[in-house]
Write a structure and sequence with these properties.
Layout lengths: L1 H4 L5 H8 L3 H22 L2 H4 L2 H20 L4 H29 L5 H29 L6 H18 L26 H23 L1 H8 L5 H25 L1 H25 L2 H29 L5 H30 L1 H25 L6
Length: about 375
């Protein structure tokens, strides 16, 4: 997952080298999200049929190919190809790896395993920009070294995955393509709708920080240190991981509306930081909003895991991530389009207002009609 966010602090360097607009940055980023959604829709149930391990290994292969594209990037096509392959890797990994970690846990350890899976997801996404920002700012070869490091990590992850036991009974070796689209078992739909809307809002915040926060930091706040930009993005994912650790104590049904409320508060601070041009306020908004996103995100996965039948768990989780990654892509492209027309600050303020409305609606609905599964 770290590989999917490695380019975040580097987009400014690519803009200088290749020459493209802020809208192009968001479209390059959105290519990743579209590939995630495509992989989830086309192969979201493959982990339930083929088994978890082969799907995870395929994701590792796509991730390595993505790093190769960025190492060869001299113009826009390799950037788009790298983001496309990275999205395919994340799409295959999201449902399969989360289900595998939960299933590999022993009796009484499912909740801890769920936290490990979601923490690895968000922690990896946060470590990507932190690592690339530090290496780009303080080490040689700013557009290459980090991707060589990533290739080494992928080899290590692939070797560890090869040694894991398979958790799916009687997996099919080479099943034909059987895309199911957005298929959610009937018994899960009452839980799926509210948790997915909350995930959409939370991932929209993550998309903002992953795609355009470095531009906000450089152009609006006049901070040009790539390590600082990477650390700002890292802070939202670090807070998300911390928020996830609070979910078990609060209980999933209470954590979902509480997470949405905290997310709204964080978005208000992000909007304020753009209005007053303050980096500390932006970081505070990232920490508060990330905490709310993590709180709601883990609660959503816990509620889905409890509601989904085992044979459809991977597919249900994949459908959930389809909605989440729609949230990480469409609003961000909207910010890029608005930025070319209004500028980054007004675009960011419009974005914050829209996502606040979605998060507040999801939190209110979850508070008034809490999902039954826990």
């Amino acid at each position: 997952m770290a590989g999917t966010t490695l380019p975040t602090p580097l987009y400014g360097l690519y803009q200088q080298r290749i020459g493209f607009s802020e809208l192009t940055v968001t479209v390059v980023f959105a290519t990743y999200a579209v590939a995630v959604i495509a992989a989830l829709l086309i192969a979201g149930n493959y982990a339930d049929v083929m088994g978890r391990r082969p799907v995870i290994l395929a994701a590792m292969a796509f991730s390595a190919a993505s790093a190769g594209c960025f190492l060869l990037a001299r113009d826009l096509p390799p950037l788009f190809a790298g983001r496309l392959l990275s999205g395919l890797a994340a799409g295959l990994l999201s449902g399969a790896a989360t289900a595998a970690v939960i299933e590999l846990a022993g009796p009484g350890r499912k909740a801890r395993a769920g936290f490990a899976a979601t923490a690895a997801n968000m922690g990896g996404l946060g470590c990507g920009p932190l690592l690339s920002g530090l290496l780009a700012q303080y080490a040689p070869w700013p557009l290459h070294l980090v991707f060589w490091v990533h290739l080494g990590l992928v080899v290590l992850a692939g070797a560890l995955t090869w040694l894991l036991p398979e958790t799916v009974e009687d997996p099919e070796r080479w099943p034909p393509p059987r895309p199911r689209g957005m298929v959610v078992p009937p018994e899960v739909k009452g839980v799926f709708v509210p948790v997915s809307v909350a995930a959409f809002a939370g991932f929209a915040l993550l998309g903002l920080f992953t795609a355009v926060a470095p531009s906000f930091v450089a152009q609006t706040l006049d901070v040009h240190n790539l390590a600082v930009s990477g650390a700002v993005v890292f802070s939202v994912f670090l807070a998300s991981t911390a928020g996830q650790s609070l979910t078990r104590k609060a209980g999933a049904r209470r954590a979902l509306p509480a997470g949405c409320a905290t997310l709204v508060a964080g978005l208000l601070l992000v909007a304020l930081s753009l209005a007053v041009q303050s980096l500390p306020v932006l970081v505070a908004g990232a920490l508060l909003g990330g905490t709310g996103q993590g709180l709601a995100f883990r609660a959503a996965l816990a509620l889905l895991d409890a509601a989904a039948p085992p044979r459809h768990r991977g597919g249900t989780i994949s459908a959930f991530f389809v909605v989440a990654y729609t949230g990480i892509s469409l609003p961000v492209v909207g910010v890029g389009a608005l930025a070319t027309w209004l500028g980054l600050r007004p675009a960011g303020l419009v974005f914050a207002g829209c996502v606040i409305a979605v998060a507040a609606s999801a939190g209110t609905y979850a508070a008034l009609r809490p999902p039954k599964a826990e």
